Amino acid sequence: MPKKESKKAFGTVEKNIQNRVKNALVSIFLIFLIGTLYYWLFEGYSLIDAMFFVGITISTVGYGMHEELSNFGKFFTLMLILAGLSVVLYNLSYVTALLVEGELIKLMKQRRVERKVSKIKDHIIVVGAGNIGTQVINQLLRLNEQVVAIDNLVTEEELREKITDSSKTKNIVFVKGDATNEEVLLRAGIKNARALVTTLPNDVLNIFVALTAKNLNANIYIVSNISNLSNLTKFIYAGVDHPIATAEIAGLKIVEALTFLKKRENIIDVLNISDKAFQVEIIDIKNTKLAGKKIEELRLKEKYNVYIIGLLKDKNLVLGPSKNEVLRDDSKAVLFGEINGLSKFREEFLNS
């Protein structure tokens, strides 16, 4: 079934159920009313007896036939039984079919999701629950952000298995569907969302998601994954505020780590700022010329433009240690500075 037809079919399920229930109630009421009026006006029953007789007739309970019932009354009663059974069985079979096909359960799940989404604001929508999307979701949950995830292939159960902190699952709502569809984005609360992250592997789909999202909420902040940098301008035209070429960034970080790898280095990250390369690394103080010295004595800023931004003692990290801190053999120093300055620092203090 084409996407458009599938969306239309699913959107009419709830309306069909409501119409069926309404028609069933109206039909039963009319049958009950007609039967009651007939027995009351034409068969001479009291109003209470007429209502009671119609009730036991439609329900097929039956406490026996009224002695004064006319021949036409017997025929009318037979038609009443058939009409009552037809209405009840027809509507019961419809509801049963919905249950067997799973449409009713699907509708109930959708309603539950819509109720959850309606209660949140300033949330972040993450489109795509693949490798990148899952990492984004886990990091957002770590920061206690409210997340609505959208995916057409992954199930809610599969996504929850990928959440690293099970205590944070209450902060995530899952919407199954195609995020290029306006209805799906509306179910995800796009109009009240603060930001949208789209991590689909296809640039065309990411661009289409961005266009649809901006059309529904012009102020939403959009971050998107790019597979091909030649499509960068298209992402910008689509309204993406922060396009990220994840493959290129990962490749750059790997090469930088290999390029600057030294025997005694533990590189955390390499940063490029204003055409200058900076590096964050961890150095083991043991068996170096740093042991026993105060941070102030090293004059790292003046000589190398390098800073000790933290000390690792056992499993504890001390950020911004005092200049009077003495460096111990059982500690590790977290350094930040220009790569050239760190290289000179290593030559003087680390190389034997």
Automatic annotation (TrEMBL):
TM helices/strands, residue ranges: 21-41, 47-65, 77-100
Pfam families: Ion_trans_2, TrkA_C, TrkA_N
Record bears the keyword tRNA processing: no
Matching InterPro entries: K_chnl_dom, NAD(P)-bd_dom_sf, RCK_C, RCK_C_sf, RCK_N, Trk_Ktr_HKT_K-transport
Keyword set includes Cell inner membrane: no
Biological process per Gene Ontology, one example term: potassium ion transport
Membrane topology: Multi-pass membrane protein
Keyword annotations of the record: Membrane, Transmembrane, Transmembrane helix
Chief site of localization: membrane
Residues annotated as domain RCK C-terminal: 265-351
GO MF entries: monoatomic cation transmembrane transporter activity
PROSITE patterns linked to this entry: RCK_C (PS51202), RCK_N (PS51201)
Localization terms from the record: Cell membrane
Origin: domain of life: Bacteria
Gene3D superfamilies tied to this protein: 1.10.287.70, NAD(P)-binding Rossmann-like Domain, Regulator of K+ conductance, C-terminal domain
SUPFAM superfamilies, per database record: NAD(P)-binding Rossmann-fold domains, TrkA C-terminal domain-like, Voltage-gated potassium channels
GO cellular component terms attached to this protein's record: plasma membrane
RCK N-terminal domain: residues covered: 121-244
PANTHER family xrefs: POTASSIUM CHANNEL PROTEIN 2-RELATED-RELATED, POTASSIUM CHANNEL PROTEIN YUGO-RELATED
Protein name: K+ transport system, NAD-binding component
Protein species of origin: Fervidobacterium pennivorans (strain DSM 9078 / Ven5)
